[in-house]
Write a structure and sequence with these properties.
This is Fibronectin type-III domain-containing protein. The chain has 104 residues and is an all-beta fold. It contains no helices and eight strands.
């Protein structure tokens, strides 16, 4: 069984987090799973990751401003990747692009 990498942070604003993910070649399907920091993973939302032989860029949209989110990749083989923890920006907090806080 392969391992999955932590999603690579690309950018974030008030309501969107953009990441790059790599997939497990042994799996048929993958999803990017995301949740607010205090939530349980069983309450998380997800978006399917398109099949690819290379890294895939994904946007998680319609998020809450000034909120901490955890993101990870999960494969149908049961492999779960390492978490990326990111804060979305506060509304009108900073007008500079990419001015978010990556917690971990």
């Amino acid at each position: 069984m392969s391992t999955l990498e932590k999603p690579e942070f690309i950018s974030a604003d008030e309501t969107t987090i953009s990441v790059k993910v790599n997939v497990d070649p042994d799996a048929n399907t993958h999803k990017l799973v995301y949740k607010q920091y205090p939530q349980s993973w069983s309450d998380a939302d997800s978006i399917p990751i398109p099949a690819a032989n290379t890294a895939v860029m994904l946007d998680v949209v319609e998020l809450l401003p000034a909120t901490t989110y955890c993101l990870r990749v999960e494969a149908d083989t049961g492999v779960v990747g390492e978490e990326l923890i990111v804060d979305t920006q506060a509304v009108d907090c900073n007008n500079q692009p990419g001015a978010c806080c990556i917690v971990q």
